[in-house]
Amino acid sequence: MLDIGFAELLVVSAIALFVVGPERLPSALRSMSLWVGRVRRGFEEIKADVSREMHNEEVMRALKESRDEVQDIADVSSAFSIEPPTTINTTANTATDTVTDSETLPDKGA
What we know:
By secondary structure, the chain is mainly alpha-helical. The chain is 77% helix and 0% strand.
């Protein structure tokens, strides 16, 4: 941040003591520290807003890429007339498949 050494701090405090005076120096330092705090909080809020906006842009870009990929898949499947897979209840189909298989298979024992 600021590269202020001890010697520079002594010079600034001596000048402030001569300009402001010893009676008003504590209140001047207090008000100066309040202003510095407000400025810091303002910069922190700006940094947080920029960071949040950058994150939102990243999320929106990822969503757009995902949407484009899904659209490409939909275009390919419609070009080949492929229907998207549907969920099937495997337990109900397994029972009917075994019955169908046993009915259509010839009996080897007879």
